[in-house]
Amino acid sequence: MKLKHLISTSALVLAGIPTNAQGQQSIYMCKSCPAGTYSAGGTSKSCTPCPAGQYQNLGGQTSCKACPANSTSSAGAKSIDDCICNTGYEKSGNSCVIKTCTVLERVFSSDDNNSCVGTMRTFQIPFGKKISASYHVSVAIVPDIYFTSFKTKLSVSCSGSIISGIIYSNGTTYYPEENRSGTTDDDKGINVSNSVTCK
After folding, report:
1. Structural domain tally of the chain?
2. For site-directed labelling of 156, which of 45, 78, 123, 136 has its Cα 20 to 30 A away?
């Protein structure tokens, strides 16, 4: 018997399906609700779209599934892929994890040769976090013993760090500008600072 043919009232009653005034109902009137929807009975007579923040990838369901934590979806979502991560989060498999940035920081110190040396290090900061850094170079200067019109460095003292760059979660790198004050022509030295924000 073809699916479009009517089935008997007794079969419908046994299946818990209501019949029409003639005691008959077509099978096509009782097909399952499609993906992205649900109903109390799972049939198409009263299908409701899944609400925002939920999805349903199967047909004939009586409820919808919640999107992963830190994500949402539009009403009627049919797949977990329709769940979009909230701002500050990114997809990792079927989960949404907080975005992070890799900070490139150069840490300065003085060596035995009265020089300022910098060592690079990296670390992670979360989305939205701002980080600042600064270092100071103190330079002691005395006249050159042979050419008194010139000056020569006697010693250098370095301390602190500077942000050399930041790598965002999409792989792009930003190199922040440095704010400088002071000069090596006096004993006050130089102050350098900058800051970056993970975004």
Report:
1. 3
2. 123
